[in-house]
Design goal:
Layout lengths: L1 H17 L17 H5 L3 H10 L19 H15 L10 H16 L6 H4 L9 H17 L1
This protein binds heme C.
Amino acid sequence: MKLLKRIGVLLIIVLVGIQFIPTTRNENNEVLTTEFIKAFNPPKNISYLLKTSCYDCHSNNTNYPWYNKIQPISWFLERHIKEAKEELNFSEFGEYSIRKQKSKLKSISNQIKDDEMPLSSYTLIHRDAKLSEKDKSELEKWLTELRDSL
Ligand code: HEC
């Protein structure tokens, strides 16, 4: 029992201690000309869907939830955002070569069609980010048209 108590106390000290370690926030209000919506000017509904369902992880600007103030949750989110941006960053999409843009558009379509994206750990909390069948087919149609026009 004594050992358990010690472990408990240690755990609390660690949990309190890690709250003071700063994390880098993914926030940048500057809208680059390479920004996806700026570059391709999609209809309002498409912009809305991408912003609501993808931009928190795949852009330079995350709209953080309150619990991002709590460690180790903020590390978890930070890692997710970093990984997501390495794969696809809508803020810098216009910088990609045409070949890369086309292949990313294809992969965006696939991820949406297969319900891989947005991540289910995200839609569990952000209910409005979940894509309906109608949303998915509208996105698919517009993304395909864009891909063919490049
Ligand atoms: C909660 C964060 C989060 C959200 C929201 C999110 N993604 Fe992702 N996405 C990731 C992460 C993390 C990865 C990299 C790891 C992986 O593939 O699972 C990724 C990878 C991807 C990839 C590359 C996958 C590959 O293997 O080629 C595409 C494309 C993608 N996401 C598209 C989207 C689209 C489109 C949306 C919105 C409909 C979206 N994501 C929403 C976190 C997210």
